[in-house]
Design a protein that fits this description.
Number of helices: 15
CATH superfamily of the largest domain: Ribonuclease H-like superfamily/Ribonuclease H
Largest sheet: 6 strands, mixed
Shape: extended
Distance between the termini: 76 Å
Structural class: alpha/beta
Number of strands: 6
CATH class of the largest domain: Alpha Beta
CATH architecture of the largest domain: 2-Layer Sandwich
Oligomer: single chain
Strand content: 5-15%
Helix content: 40-55%
Length: 427
């Protein structure tokens, strides 16, 4: 039996990719190899096995080594365990570990003594370093009293650097001889997700546009209260957050199937925030069943894919925007004039159709490729409305304790979405 295992290791050494289970060979070639393994090993038998059984023997052997290495690693990291609880790894086992690419750092017995010596030596080094640093700090503190202010400042800086080094050494002492300082902390950097489109923006036309905008406002004789901006965004209204808090001992956070039911909403407000118009909601259905007996507090429209198009936008401009701006102007004793800033997309063209009959209410396009930098609604309002909507959706789910989350999300309709969006926009 031992000769068979020795021969198995020798044959697997000729095919390292098959030994590790990551081969990209044809199935016929792999099967031919295992049949050759079976013939050679059966010659040393008994026992005698077929090719599939010998393959299973090799797979089980690999997993047994993996469990043994994991056990030894846990024993080293535990308090009070010690080498006495480490499982022995034979030379043949070490050969399997080397062939399969498992962690060779966890091979114990003969290396345990060297590991402990390395740890003890590291601790002695850190202790000696700390004593030296303490003496250096005391010397700096004594000489600082007798030296000029400039030299004191220099010593304070030096003292801070020494303290930082001591802190790093203390971390090395706590975490063991294999600890390496975090390079991100050393170099003062952090890891962030790349988001937005600011780097793709064309900022060359912003200055000229600002002058044109001021000239247009002077020509129309309007103030910031009469300058509006509108922009739309998609919303997966049944989508739950993909991050959560878990206990420190939990390794994963299981999730659910992502609900991709989508609508589009458009926000519009004036420059000083005194007038927030009713958001426009764009869904797929012309008459959703959930609207029966429902007085919609927002504007609703529909398109085939829940996207905004020129027809919907022109209809909103003439039947909703002009009307709401007129009411606001009358309530605040303002002349019925307004200018709407919108991004340069095809749904907003041509702009000569975006004006009232008396031409006192009109629209103006922003320069192309400046939305991420210059569009007011893209700076924060849309993001904050989405965050507030998500929070209210979660509160709604938490409030219904005895109902499964899947049932709550399934029953969450566009009607519920509109009510939550209205609350988020009002706040």
């Amino acid at each position: 039996m031992a000769e068979q295992y020795e021969k198995l290791c020798d044959m697997m050494a000729t095919k390292r990719d098959i030994a590790q289970g990551f081969q990209k060979r044809p199935k016929e070639e792999v099967q031919e190899f295992w049949e050759e393994v079976a013939r050679n090993l059966n010659a040393f038998g008994p026992p005698t096995k077929d090719s599939n059984t010998w393959r299973k023997v090799w797979i089980d052997w690999k997993y047994y080594m993996k469990r043994k290495l994991s056990h030894n690693k846990k024993e080293r990291m535990s308090t009070g365990g010690g080498p006495c609880r480490l499982q022995r790894i034979s030379p043949l086992d070490e050969k399997v570990i080397a062939l399969t690419g498992l962690e060779t750092d966890d091979i114990p017995s003969t290396k345990t003594k060297k590991f402990n010596e390395a740890a003890f030596g590291k601790m002695e080094e850190v202790t000696s370093y700390l004593r030296h640093m303490n003496r250096s700090l005391e010397t700096l503190a004594e000489t600082a009293v007798k030296q000029p202010e400039e030299q004191k400042r220099h010593n304070r800086i030096k003292e801070e650097l020494v303290k930082e080094k001591v802190e790093i050494k203390m971390q090395m002492l706590r975490l063991g001889p294999n600890y390496k300082p975090d390079s991100k902390k050393i170099f003062g950097i952090r890891h962030l997700k790349i988001c937005g489109e600011i780097l793709s923006s064309d900022k060359s036309g912003i200055t000229s546009f600002i002058h044109n905008l001021r000239a247009k406002m002077n020509e129309m004789e309007i103030s910031d209260m009469q300058l509006y901006n509108a922009d739309e965004s998609g919303l997966f209204y049944r989508f739950l957050p993909d991050k959560t808090f878990v206990a420190a001992n939990e390794k994963t956070a299981p999730g659910r199937k992502i609900a991709k039911d989508r609508i589009t909403f458009m926000l519009c407000a004036n420059a000083n925030g005194s007038h927030k118009l009713k958001p426009l909601i764009i869904g797929k259905s012309a008459n959703p069943r959930c609207f029966k007996g429902f007085e919609n507090p927002l504007e609703y429209a529909n398109s085939q894919k829940s996207w905004k198009n020129s027809e919907l936008f022109f209809r909103w401009f003439h039947h909703s925007f002009i009307k709401q701006v007129g009411q606001f102007s009358a309530e605040n004793n303002l002349p019925p004039r307004a200018l709407l800033l919108i991004d340069n997309c095809t749904a907003h063209k041509p702009t000569d159709k975006l004006q009232s009959d008396d031409r006192n209410i009109a629209a103006m396009l922003l320069p192309p490729n400046v939305t991420a930098v210059f569009q007011p609604m893209d700076q924060n309002p849309i993001r904050l409305v989405k965050l507030e909507y998500r929070a209210k959706l979660l509160w709604n789910i938490v409030a219904q304790e005895n109902i499964p989350v899947e049932n709550i999300l399934k029953g969450h309709s566009i009607r519920d979405t509109i009510l939550l969006l209205k609350l988020a926009w009002d706040e």
